[in-house]
Amino acid sequence: MVLITLVSSDEQNFPVERELLKQSGTIETLIVNMNLDDEDTDAAAMPIPLPNVKGDVLEKVIQWMEHHKGDPVKEGDNEDNNAEIVVPQWDDDFFKPAMYGSKHLELTVAASYLDIKNLLTLSCKAISNTFKGKTGPQIREEWGVPNEFTPEEEEAIRKENEWSE
Amino acid sequence: MSSELNLAELPVEVLLDIFRNVAREDTKTVSLRTTLRLVCSRFNNIISDPNNNRPLSEIRMKIEKITIAQFGSALAIRAFHGTSNEQTAHMNRERIYSYPEIPLLKSGRENPVPWRWIDITRSFILSLMECLNGYPRIHCINFDLYELYNMENIKIIKAEFGKDIDVGIMAKFASNFRALGFIPKRFNTFEFIEKLTNGPEIGDFGYLNPFEDSGEILGYLSCLINANQLTPISLHTFSRFWAFQSIKFSTTLDQLINAIELRIKIGKLNWEISLSDEEWEIRNFMQKNNRDYQEVEPFNNDDALRLMKLHQFNGVYYSVLIIITRRHEVGCYHAKCLNRIIDMLL
């Protein structure tokens, strides 16, 4: 089994099975560019630095990839796909403990940076699920977003889309 | 990366993904846009940014039509949601607080029939486009305008298009709509149609009704006559100069057929033009250039020439039908081209 070492921004090393990394478009590109798949290359001796991902977040990403090993990898932009996305129970349980906190957001940003489309989609879906049936101020409060609007500004936004009597 | 990353600080592309996911399940798309804008100023900026119109199309409001009205010195612009039925639309309308620069109305005092006209300028078109930012394709824009003094007294306002409006700006503006009525014939070009039907909202385009812009206003009666005259395309441009092999001439019947065939899968596409020359020339053109169009037996005892061609894509049959009739009241031939899905089991 070929192992490739990922190095987080806080210098933690994570030896990861080569097969798992196919889920990440960014790492896959780096592997190709660094010739890590070549027989002559000692992949273990050439760690891949990931300066935008902290160790604890990378650990979660690897945990997610291990569970989803062998899943079909999504390709291309899925912008036009209107199909409803359902978050599987395992993923829901995986995201839930960190929901409403910065750890889940960091995991989402890492999924985007590492180009792990399935993780990004499910993670975004888990966030959007928390918006259901809520007002703007309720979403703001639950996620701890500072209120930057004056009452006048809020009223102006409401008015822009106001229904006529 | 900050240890306390906030929802509002997520990268734009991630937030766009989240917004799209909310839209997939929320049926109240009208309030959803406002709800998200009210979360924080970053959400508000991203949603209001015209560059994000395409990725956020699912949370944009679905508008059927807009109206612009002037009451004394006050203006009102209304967007109607999801219906063209007047009664339902009345209950289903929305104010837009961003007003276009509406040009002043001009009056023709010498004319015995009351009429007024409005100059459609480049500035007006650009201003209206600004107001429509964030809205998907509206059902129809019709430049045959009416002025309502009261319900019994409807007066026509004729739209005059400024020379500074070129095909490019007009096509960009027109891409906000699914159907167009009473636009000048100079926009009836292949380039215009191409830009119009290749916009981001592809799939919604339905109908184009180009209209001869006479360049002068002759009053109410003349307006009615003009309403029956669709854009004339001289046969000379296609039968004598082989214009279908040239890009120099304006849209020809052949280009019209081409445009419809190329967009056959988009949806219903009707395009009407008038042909103002001799019948034998039309038949001659059709025989030489019919590209496998078959003449359909006449029905309803009319003298229309019907030509049809079947296309097949992925097992679905589509027909393109060209109906050429003589309009006796205005002394010219009229061509109507349309495409439809055919149920081959019938």
From TrEMBL, chain A:
Q: Which domain of life is it from?
A: Eukaryota
Q: Which GO terms describe its molecular function?
A: cullin family protein binding
| Gene3D superfamilies for the chain | Potassium Channel Kv1.1, Chain A (3.30.710.10)
Keyword Ribosomal protein assigned to the entry: answer is: no
Matches recorded under InterPro entries: SKP1, SKP1-like, SKP1-like_dim_sf, SKP1/BTB/POZ_sf, Skp1_comp_dimer, Skp1_comp_POZ
Query: Could you tell me the keywords of this UniProt record?
Result: Ubl conjugation pathway
GO CC terms on record?
Answer: cytoplasm; nucleus
Specify residue ranges for compositional bias: Basic and acidic residues.
156-165
GO BP annotations, alphabetical order? protein ubiquitination; SCF-dependent proteasomal ubiquitin-dependent protein catabolic process
Please give the residue ranges the record annotates as the region Disordered: 145-165
Pathway assigned to this chain's UniProt record: Protein modification; protein ubiquitination
- Functional summary from the UniProt entry: Probable essential component of SCF (SKP1-CUL1-F-box protein) E3 ubiquitin-protein ligase complexes, which mediate the ubiquitination and subsequent proteasomal degradation of target proteins. Regulates cell proliferation during embryonic and larval development.
Q: Which family does it belong to?
A: Belongs to the SKP1 family.
This chain belongs to which protein, by name? Answer: Skp1-related protein
* Native source species: Pristionchus pacificus
Which lineage do the record's taxonomy fields give for this organism? Eukaryota, Metazoa, Ecdysozoa, Nematoda, Chromadorea
Gene encoding the protein:
WBGene00273347
Automatic annotation (TrEMBL), chain B:
InterPro entries xrefs:
F-box-like_dom_sf (IPR036047), F-box_dom (IPR001810)
F-box domain mapped to chain residues: 4-59
Q: Give coiled-coil spans as residue ranges.
A: none
Where does the secretion signal sit in this chain? none
Which PROSITE patterns does the record cross-reference, listed alphabetically? FBOX (PS50181)
Give any Pfam family that matches. Answer: F-box-like
Give me the segments passing through the membrane.
none
Q: Which Gene3D superfamilies match?
A: 1.20.1280.50
Name the record gives this protein? F-box domain-containing protein
Species name for this entry?
Pristionchus pacificus
The protein's gene is named WBGene00274344
